[in-house]
Amino acid sequence: MKQFMKVLIWIVILGAVLFGVYTILPEYPQSFMKSFVQPVVDAQAKTRIEQVKALKNKDVDASYQEILEHYTNTSCWVYEQGAGNEIVTFYGKGASINIKDVPNHEDHLYPSTAVKFEFVITGNNVEIKAYIEDNLQDETIRDLMISQLYAGGKK
User: Fold this and answer.
1) Cβ–Cβ contacts within 10 Å for residue 128, how many?
2) Mean predicted confidence (pLDDT) in 131-145
3) Backbone dihedral region of 110: left (phi > 0), alpha (psi from -120 to 50 degrees) or beta?
4) 139, 143, 130, 106: which is closest to 151 by C-alpha?
């Protein structure tokens, strides 16, 4: 019985240390780890993520899974419930985004960058927000990012 209690205490201590490390990780590594566990333990999260992946983008005539996953490295999808809405977030690294020569925007080339897309679901409405290196982009850049990621994924 004494040995069992020692093992149990060490398991609790190890679990607490791992949880502590998880909570201090930056957003991307934390989300990457969460993306493996969440669909297994949360059926609603799995359903919503699959629904968003299957959504078609009318401009490039492809699903968001086809657009986002094939041209980024170490991509992941996570689900959260917000106040009156649901959010499915895509994270990807290694994307090449070129926003040079876009009117009213700063010329910039991101050769290997982190991108994030938030799909904010409110009822039957889905609003898509795009981020480059954690900076929110406007609709013009969002649409450009989608077309470049899709074109890059077809190569």
Assistant:
1) 17
2) 90
3) beta
4) 143
- Residue for token pair 């009213």: 104
Q: Note whether 110 and 96 are within 8 A (CB).
A: yes
The conformation of residue 140, written as its DSSP 8-state character, comes to H
Report domain extents, the chain. 2-153
Q: Over the chain, what is the mean pLDDT?
A: 84
Amino acid, res. 64: Y
* Tokens 């927000």 belong to residue: 129
Residue matched to tokens 């010329």: 107
CA atoms of 33 and 57, how far apart (whole Å): 27
CA distance 113 to 91: 11
What are 110-124's pLDDT values in tens digits?
888 889 999 999 988
Instruction: Band the pLDDT of 155: cuts 50, 70, 90.
Output: very low
Please state, for a pLDDT cut of 70, what percent of the chain lies above it: 88
Contact predicate 148/97, CB 8 Å: yes
